[in-house]
Amino acid sequence: MNETTVTVVGNVATTPVYRELPSGPVARFRLAVTARHFDAVKNTWNDGHTNFFTVWARRTLGANVQASLAVDEPVIVQGRLKVRDEERGGQHWTSADIDAQTIGHDLSRGTAAFRRVLKGDGSLTQAASAREQPESEPVG
Questions:
Q1: How many angstroms from the chain centroid is the CA of residue 38?
Q2: What's this model's pTM, rounded to 2 decimal places?
Q3: What sections of the sequence does the record tag as coiled-coil (predicted)?
Q4: Which long-range contacts link 40-47 to residues 24+ away (Cβ below 8 Å)?
Q5: What is the C-alpha R_g of the chain?
Q6: What CA–CA distance (Å, rounded) separates 4 from 21?
Q7: Residue 81 CA: distances (Å) to CA of 6, 27, 46, 57, 65
Q8: How far apart are CA 35 and CA 8, in angstroms?
Q9: Following DSSP, what letter does each residue of the chain receive, concatenated?
């Protein structure tokens, strides 16, 4: 009930990995989020520290992530933040995961074409399929 929900804007850092599990489809990818600040003296934007999150997308969202996202694309991710501390090979690791509820392209940095999928089978609707077919030009 008291989970930490976050909205993060960044770039897809790794190719989404998609798997069919007994519990349903899941996709994961790394999200890079770099803070930027404006230096008024130099009149330039400067990059700050980059944070990396592992984003987990389950069920239909996972299938859509696999079909829609590629490395370096700007995205907005909203979901539950989970920070994990663990020991691996004698070293201490801390990781931040986001269990995504929604993911979309950041349209302030580019354009996207939405394609609706039918519930259950993941195939495109007829309207979306028709949009993807190039219209033939009249000959003559």
A1: 26
A2: 0.79
A3: none
A4: none
A5: 19
A6: 26
A7: 6, 16, 27, 13, 18
A8: 11
A9: ----EEEEEEEE-SPPEEEEETTEEEEEEEEEEEEEEEETTTTEEEEEEEEEEEEEEEHHHHHHHHHH--TT-EEEEEEEEEEEEEEETTEEEEEEEEEEEEEEE-TTS-------B-TTT-PBPHHHHHHHSPPPPPP-
Confidence of residue 26 (pLDDT cuts 50, 70, 90): very high
Q: What six digits make up the tokens of 74?
A: 């700007």
Burial zone of 18 (CB within 10 Å; 0-12 exposed, 13-18 middle, 19+ buried): middle
pLDDT band at 127; cut points 50, 70, 90: very low
Task: Determine how many CB atoms are found less than 10 A away from the CB of residue 74.
Answer: 14
